[in-house]
Write a structure and sequence with these properties.
By secondary structure, the protein is mostly beta strands. It contains 2 helices and 13 strands, in the order ββββββαβαββββββ.
Length: about 170
């Protein structure tokens, strides 16, 4: 299985309790769906876990992971990203995208000039922001991922069209 066959669906925020329970941060639209996509893998694919949700907890979900039975084992997994097989995830509507599919796409303005490449996607609570790095650009271009600013996403050709707001270059 290649990295593109997996999507990051959450991360382990740390131990919860003393019997190996973990606190999960879910990146799923329905947070509890993270348990439905198992098994979940570490980024390098070297470990996999089945997930059993136990209860809602502050900042996430309490869960038991297969093979994790002590607080020490749970603590050792803090910060681990969890990936699901793409085939187990729901098919997205045409106007929604997995972040991993957008990273690396070329960004062009409406006149066809290359602005750069999407390097990251950020969300600080008010919607997704595309971070675009371009040649000769001292700072990355940060574009709101809205239909008005990004009218076209063409995954097949690996390109995005950006209609830059006035004053943003």
């Amino acid at each position: 299985m290649t990295a593109s066959d997996r999507i990051c669906v959450g991360s382990i925020a740390g131990a919860f309790g003393v019997q190996g329970e973990v606190r999960l941060k879910s990146f799923c639209a329905d947070p509890e769906a993270i348990a439905d996509y198992g098994p979940l893998y570490t980024e390098d694919g070297s470990r996999s876990f089945t997930v059993k949700l136990t209860r809602p907890v502050a900042g996430g979900l309490g869960a038991r992971l297969s093979g994790v039975t002590t607080k020490e084992q749970a603590d050792a997994l803090r910060g681990t990203s969890l990936f699901a097989e793409r085939a187990r995830l729901p098919k997205l509507p045409d106007d929604e995208f997995y972040h991993t599919d957008l990273i690396g796409l070329s960004v062009f303005d409406t006149g066809g000039a290359l602005l750069g490449v999407i390097r990251a996607i950020h969300n600080h609570g008010a919607g997704d922001i595309l971070e675009v790095e371009g040649q000769g650009r001292k700072q990355p271009l940060l574009l709101p991922f809205t239909l008005a600013v990004i009218p076209t996403v063409d995954l097949a050709s690996g390109r995005v069209v950006a209609d830059l707001p006035e004053g943003l270059e």
